[in-house]
Specification:
Elements (H helix, E strand, L loop, with lengths): L3 H4 L1 H9 L4 H9 L5 H19 L2 E4 L1 H16 L10 E5 L26 H8 L3 E6 L11 E2 L3 E2 L15 H8 L5 E6 L5 H7 L2 E4 L24 E6 L2 H11 L27 E3 L10 H16 L4 E2 L12 H14 L9 H8 L8 H7 L5 H21 L5 E5 L18 E6 L2 E6 L5 H4 L8 E8 L5 E7 L6 H14 L11
Parallel strand pairs: 2-3, 2-6, 9-10, 9-11
Antiparallel strand pairs: 1-3, 4-5, 6-8, 7-8, 7-14, 11-15, 12-13, 14-15
Helix pairs in contact: 4-5, 7-8, 9-16, 11-13, 11-14
Length: 504
């Protein structure tokens, strides 16, 4: 039985483009098969249809987006061609967009209206992107869930009772729901990769220092780069990650006067050529059922493609960095980088007071980090740079390191306070146990400390029908290698899956 909508060629094309890549949408615009105005209105219609419940796009300027779409159509008619000309996108709330508020979910900054675009947003706008608005985050970008007093709660399209992750949770939800094909996020503790894992999209944490964060966060006017933090893209295809990354490079007007980043090509163009080290169990812990599923699935696919997969037991002694010591160091530098460290709970203060002087655990590092003297920070920084060189030696033997992203798929909303004392149910071979919030960051933190690039890529669904992902970690400044690895797996086995009920 036909319907007017299905019989309308324009509607059929727009529906076909709903879950297309940004590159495919840009090609359709450049070829004149669709107009920027029509593509934008299609995106806005989906937001109107789904976002009262999902609450992903929380800062909106649809009138400005419509003006930009009309300008894009005029430019296309003149023959202009830019990588994202006329493509609608959203960006994470923490990035300044001229005329919109940047609050990071903090009511104290609810009136912090940006006067100009951040450098990263400006790069995407110059490439022709039509910016619809901004997507939700947790308070201070410091949670695995995305809710706050300013904008409320964002839900996961796969299950409304579950989180899409944080801190780029609204970003991932907007992609999975088919609002836009490209998003701009940031990552210091998995804030791109964990939401990508929870919603079944792709996310890339660039090498540290490649993408400017100028014009993001609060308070406004910050000129220095925040330690460990990076900006990077989320998308529904691996190829879009590379497209966006190329646009985001070399935006700082001070450094670009003298030098420019030119990333080396991917090490290989065929999966069988990749040398892959797989890590499936964090030292000193038991592997969760979700971690086992993820690694078994990716290993099976790699071996089917002729890839030789190595395990830590195959390595010479000392080649793999000490992950436990590295994680404690990550906790030290992460905690000491917080511009506004959280007020510790009474239990945390008691634990801090009871710490033994020789305690080198990750918990001790996290408790002590906000009070670190600068001379001690410098010692930790020296250890960080030594670790980067150790990873570089490992990457002479391997091209990518594949790990889980988190110990579970998307979990149910949990707003218990204080946040650091939350626990979440995780299934293991011997049953379900509660795992602390602080123990969710082992895999996510692994590439952050040495500043390595890491690409989160979907691997289908688990037994509960939720998306799961792995991450490919690459050598410093060789971002194209893990993206290419994810892209080749996507070509062979597929990638993003549309959540039930969100089809065009």
């Amino acid at each position: 039985m036909s319907t007017p909508e299905l019989d309308d060629p324009k509607s059929a094309l727009l529906n076909a483009l709903t879950f297309a890549s940004a590159k495919q949408q840009a090609d359709a615009l450049a070829e004149g098969r669709v107009s920027a105005v029509d593509l934008l209105e299609h995106s806005l219609a989906r937001i109107a249809r789904f976002d009262d419940i999902l609450n992903a796009v929380v800062a909106r300027d649809f009138d400005a987006a419509r003006n930009a779409a009309r300008e894009a159509d005029a430019a296309l008619t003149r023959g202009e061609r830019r990588p994202l000309l006329g493509v609608p996108i959203t960006v994470k709330e923490s990035f300044d967009v001229a005329g919109l508020v940047t609050s990071v979910g903090n009511p104290s900054y609810a009136d912090n209206r940006a006067e100009r675009d951040s450098l990263a947003v400006a790069a995407l706008r110059e490439a022709g992107a039509v910016i619809i608005g901004k997507t939700n985050v947790p308070l201070g970008l410091a949670d695995l869930q995305s809710y706050n007093e300013v904008y409320g709660l964002t839900r996961n399209p796969w299950d409304l009772e579950r989180t899409p992750g944080g801190s780029s949770g609204g970003s991932a939800a907007a992609l999975a729901a088919g609002y836009v094909a490209l998003e701009l996020g940031s990552d210091i503790g998995g804030s791109i990769r964990i939401p990508a894992h929870f919603t079944g999209v792709f996310g890339h944490k660039p090498s540290y220092g490649l993408v400017s964060l100028t014009g993001s966060g609060v308070p406004r006017g910050r000129a220095s780069a925040r330690d460990l933090s990076v900006a990077g893209p989320l998308a529904r295809s691996a190829a879009d990650l590379e497209l966006a990354l190329d646009l985001l490079l070399n935006r700082d007007p001070l450094t670009s006067k003298a030098w420019r980043a030119t990333l080396p090509p991917a090490r290989h163009t065929r999966l069988a050529e990749f040398r892959v080290l797989v890590l499936d169990t964090w030292p000193g812990t038991q592997r969760s059922l979700s971690e086992r599923l993820v690694i078994e699935r990716v290993v099976e696919r790699l071996r089917t493609q002729g890839v030789y997969v190595s395990r830590p037991a195959d390595l010479p002694q000392g080649l793999l960095p000490d992950l436990v010591r590295a994680h404690a160091l990550y906790r030290t530098l992460l905690g000491s980088s917080l511009a506004e460290p959280p007020v510790p709970s009474e239990a945390a203060r008691q634990r801090l007071a009871a710490l033994a002087p020789a305690d080198e655990s990750a918990d001790a590092a996290w408790l002590s980090a906000p009070y670190l003297a600068h001379r001690d920070w410098l010692k930790a920084d020296e250890q960080r740079h030594a670790l980067r060189h150790q990873w570089e030696r490992l990457f002479k033997a391997f091209d990518v390191i594949v790990t889980p992203v988190a110990p579970v798929a998307a979990f149910r909303h949990n707003h218990q306070e204080p946040k650091d004392e939350r626990t979440y149910p995780v299934a293991f071979d011997d049953g379900v146990r509660e795992v602390r919030f602080l123990d969710f960051f082992h895999w996510a933190g692994l590439p952050v400390l040495p500043g390595l690039p890491a690409t989160s890529f979907p691997l289908g669904l688990d037994d509960d029908g939720l998306p799961v992902s792995a991450q490919a970690v690459g050598p410093w400044l060789e971002d194209r290698t893990p993206i290419a690895f994810a892209h080749l797996l996507e070509q062979a086995y597929g990638g993003f899956v549309v959540p039930p009920g969100y089809g065009a």
